Automatic annotation (TrEMBL):
<feature type="binding site" description="axial binding residue">
    <location>
        <position position="389"/>
    </location>
    <ligand>
        <name>heme</name>
    </ligand>
</feature>
<keyword id="KW-0479">Metal-binding</keyword>
<keyword id="KW-0560">Oxidoreductase</keyword>
<dbReference type="GO" id="GO:0005506">
    <property type="term" value="F:iron ion binding"/>
</dbReference>
<dbReference type="Pfam" id="PF00067">
    <property type="entry name" value="p450"/>
</dbReference>
<dbReference type="GO" id="GO:0004497">
    <property type="term" value="F:monooxygenase activity"/>
</dbReference>
<dbReference type="InterPro" id="IPR001128">
    <property type="entry name" value="Cyt_P450"/>
</dbReference>
<keyword id="KW-0349">Heme</keyword>
<keyword id="KW-0408">Iron</keyword>
<keyword id="KW-0503">Monooxygenase</keyword>
<comment type="similarity">
    <text>Belongs to the cytochrome P450 family.</text>
</comment>
<dbReference type="InterPro" id="IPR017972">
    <property type="entry name" value="Cyt_P450_CS"/>
</dbReference>
<protein>
    <submittedName>
        <fullName>Pyridine nucleotide-disulfide oxidoreductase</fullName>
    </submittedName>
</protein>
<dbReference type="InterPro" id="IPR050196">
    <property type="entry name" value="Cytochrome_P450_Monoox"/>
</dbReference>
<dbReference type="InterPro" id="IPR002401">
    <property type="entry name" value="Cyt_P450_E_grp-I"/>
</dbReference>
<dbReference type="GO" id="GO:0020037">
    <property type="term" value="F:heme binding"/>
</dbReference>
<dbReference type="InterPro" id="IPR036396">
    <property type="entry name" value="Cyt_P450_sf"/>
</dbReference>
Length: 442
């Protein structure tokens, strides 16, 4: 029996429905079948809904797929970094990248996560309200720059965060546009995109020069590690361009996702007083005098459930693309080379058969005793298989520590009750930002 259903609406209607409101489009498609064919003719496009197809594409048959269009678009900004390379090149990079996220390094990163969060608390205590999304963007940008490049971007935080935002907006526009104009074509959007890339490069290239001249100052960072790996016997040399691409990758993949997640969490807590009270109870019991940040992190059980529930409802990586490299058989059905597959954690995480009352915020879904009932490939905010998120542990720890430090001193309340909408760019943002009252917890 075939599990793929073709929807009856025309491809033009599907395309405009998708462009108008991609998130609702995917949620509507959820009940149409395990795999939905979008009727797109020469280049077949599918929406993947069932966990077993997700597993086939991302894990079991992953060698038959590439990231396709996502890679093509992202390469314009980040070049050949870990997020965008394919096949053997990617495998090689993933191997030399692993040590950046080893436990002993994560333990050191935790110190920076806590101290930067404390500085932000001191700043926020002077304010009545703030644009929370921007504050979170600057905080996670500052953390990633310190731990990956030993660079303090405090003075340039706003400018850099704006440059990253501009590249992300342009990338999202290109991702969903039917035409992909080369970046060299001087459209207004392309010019803005190129300016933003130059701003980021003006920060990145001097760091590379400095790291090569003064390696000891960088030995604990990603840049130092990559320079070191090139010194191993038989290792190929590493060029500035490759370092630049990996640094761009970390800037783009490693801070916007976490910042958006944090913004959604504080929003969700402001709407769910019971969960907020349980969160406060947990963090108020922490003994910050005797513990290292890493020990603190391991005690944040309920906080962890809040993070997972927010990742379910507002997964920053809301859409994952794959393209078949060759003809491929999935669960006994054949798909042609070149077929594209859209896998949307945003809609799959709302499957009511797996998550009853899917729109309700219920962190307890992820309590130890309940987690077992969630099939592995029904919940995958960090992807799965060979292309899954290398920063997964980093992101979970960073989010928990930031929540704990900020949550012990402050909470946030909505300034007004205007509806908050998600904006699906490369990562899932709060549309038009989130203005929040800053309330001291006394
Ligand atoms: C809440 C935060 C984050 C979320 C939800 C997230 C999600 C994801 C997802 C879903 C993928 C797989 C994409 C695909 O299969 O096409 C991915 C890949 C990746 N992520 Fe994350 N990520 C987060 C934070 C981070 C952080 C903090 C870093 C780095 C410090 C990072 C670095 C990367 C990189 C380099 C890849 C590409 C891995 C590869 O292709 O081998 N991410 N992320």
């Amino acid at each position: 029996m075939t599990r793929t259903k073709t929807i009856k609406t025309s491809r033009i209607k599907n395309y405009f429905d998708f462009r108008r409101d991609p998130l609702s489009f995917f949620v509507r498609m959820l009940e149409k079948g395990d795999m939905v064919s979008l009727n797109t003719g020469l280049v077949p496009s599918y929406i993947v809904n069932s966990p077993s197809f997700v597993q086939e594409i991302l894990v079991t048959k992953d060698a038959s797929f590439r990231k396709g269009r996502t890679t093509k678009v992202l390469t314009r900004t980040i070049g050949d970094g870990l997020l965008t390379t394919e096949k053997t090149h990617h495998k090689k990079q993933k191997k030399y990248f692993q040590p950046v996220f080893y436990k002993e390094r994560l333990m050191r990163y935790a110190e920076t996560m806590v101290s930067d969060s404390k500085s932000l608390v001191a700043e926020l205590e002077q304010k009545d309200s703030c644009l929370l999304d921007e504050e979170m963007m600057e905080l996670t940008l500052s953390i990633i720059s310190k731990v990956m490049f030993a660079t303090n971007v405090d003075e340039k935080k706003k400018e850099l965060a704006a440059a990253v935002s501009a590249t992300i907006k342009q990338t999202a526009n290109s991702l969903f546009s039917p035409f992909l104009l080369p970046l060299a074509v001087p459209t207004k959007g392309n010019r803005r995109h190129r300016d933003a890339i130059s701003k980021l490069e003006n920060v990145i290239y001097p760091i590379i020069d400095e790291a090569k001249q003064n390696p000891t100052a960088y030995e604990d960072t990603m840049v130092g590690l990559l320079l070191d790996s090139a010194k191993q016997p038989d290792a190929p040399p590493i060029f500035d361009k490759e370092l630049r691409d990996q640094m761009m990758t970390m800037l783009l993949a490693g801070h916007e996702t976490s910042a958006n997640l944090l913004t959604w969490i504080f929003y969700a807590l402001s709407k769910n007083p019971e969960a907020e009270a349980k969160f406060h109870e947990e963090i108020d019991q922490l003994d910050s005098l005797t513990e290292t940040p890493f020990e603190t992190y391991r005690k944040l059980t309920y906080t962890n459930q809040i993070i997972k529930e927010t990742l379910r409802l507002y997964p920053p990586a809301w859409l994952i693309y794959r393209e078949a490299d060759e003809d491929v058989e999935l669960l006994g059905e054949s798909f042609k080379a070149g077929s594209t597959f859209m896998i949307a954690p945003y809609s799959i995480h709302r499957n009511p058969d797996i998550f009853p009352d899917p729109e309700q915020f219920k962190p307890e879904r992820f309590a130890e005793e309940n987690q077992e009932s969630i099939p592995t490939f029904a919940y995958f905010p960090f992807g799965a298989g060979s292309r899954s998120c290398i920063g997964y542990r980093f992101a979970m720890m960073e989010t928990a520590l930031i929540l704990a430090v900020i949550g012990r001193s402050l909470k946030f309340q909505r300034v007004d009750e205007t509806p908050v909408e998600p904006e699906p760019l490369v990562s899932l943002r709060v549309k038009d930002g989130l203005n929040m009252k800053v309330v001291s917890r006394g």
